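Predicting holo structure, coenzyme A bound.
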Amino acid sequence: MISLIHITPRNLGLYQDDILAIERASFPSPWGPSAFQGEAGNDVSNFWVLLLDGETAAYVCFWMFLDEIHLLSLAVHPGRRRMGLGRHLMDRMIALGLASGVEKVWLEVRPSNTPARELYHKYGFRGGGRRQGYYDDTREDALIMTLSLEAPMQMARGTSS
Ligand SMILES: CC(C)(COP(=O)(O)OP(=O)(O)OC[C@H]1O[C@@H](n2cnc3c(N)ncnc32)[C@H](O)[C@@H]1OP(=O)(O)O)[C@@H](O)C(=O)NCCC(=O)NCCS
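Done. Tokens:
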């Protein structure tokens, strides 16, 4: 069973170790505790943990302000990938955006990150420019991908219940 927990400064401590473990296993330059604490206390930030049968399996963090969503981070536990959990979190984020009048979703992704690019591509995200040398660790550029929620969307196979 999937459930989503909205992370706040009050409940972050319950999930922080699990989130940090997923983070370390997912990114070459993982966020540390202070970054997650900042997002938990940020009014424009939506920070959700996905529990699969009660176990922390994934998280997403995005800013929603005015008519935009900026996806900051999305990660699934390595042992829980290719089960539709990334798609589930994307579905929920986009559903909130649609219900809130969001017109555009944007994100940065490493060009080398094929799994993430494939996922975003399925939702209709398209490349919209690059930030040169954006990632400090590898000096890799960031590919900026955008999705208009006004245009008909090519939805991935939904998993939301
Ligand atoms: C990217 C990530 C979040 C995808 O999560 P996931 O739960 O495994 O993805 P899903 O099972 O929902 O897959 C949805 C679609 O994404 C694409 N996809 C996911 N993993 C893929 C892979 N390894 N190779 C190619 N396509 C992939 C596929 O199109 C897939 O649809 P399909 O299973 O019907 O083929 C996960 O790989 C991850 O946590 N990666 C490390 C962190 C990261 O890079 N985050 C993104 C930062 S921008």
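The chain has one domain: 2-148.
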